[in-house]
Give the backbone structure.
Amino acid sequence: MRRPFVAGNWKMNLTRDESTALASEIVSAVGSGGNCDVAVCPPNVYLHAVAEATKGSSVGVGAQNVYHEVSGAFTGETSTEMIKDVGATYVILGHSERRNILGESNEDVNKKLHAVLAAGLTPIVCVGELLEEREAGRTIDVIKEQFTGSFANISAEQLGKCVIAYEPVWAIGTGKVATPEQAEEVHANLRSIMTEAFDASTAESVRIQYGGSVKPDNAAELLGQPNIDGALVGGAALKADSFVAIIKAAG
Ligand code: PEP
């Protein structure tokens, strides 16, 4: 039985005060935790403040990105140890904005994934097709390619420690949500891809979040699908009431 997991990706939004206030509101609403794991992913500069605001609660904190090297002359980058040091336990990897705006490749994601697992952090690895790829009937091929490249040289044991987020790029921040059937089809395919590349029991254990315009009014139906194990939430994670409503729909 996979425990649902809802994470909020705050992207490059909010001030420090807004971040800590939002984190505190979420902590109060979620309490000691229900049937759903919860995490918030603020910008790196606010990780420490948000980790302090959520300390002792069931709300986890994640970074939105990391660099694969341990330390050194990598101006502007942040290492896994730095992220751990300020209290985060999750890292989002390969978000479509990093892939499509900042040019991250599957190979980059793979290097980061190895670094994150070596540091004992939990990765949330994002995959998802562009609108033109869906329209060309290439969705499953694209997902397979991204999965295979991102998880190269990863063991089954390591895969078991990962979370995957299926985020169709055309649904992110657009208000165009995938139908539960469209999302479920990709999630079920991802599980088959994992079974083929690894084994069935590991594939069954990995949580696959859906992301792309998840809102309180569509969350229950999406999260009710057999292979959808939670959500990675952007816009609706910036307000406590909508984020908490999605958490309630999951758990
Ligand atoms: C995201 O950024 O991961 C996301 C899913 O955004 P939104 O919920 O706003 O579509």
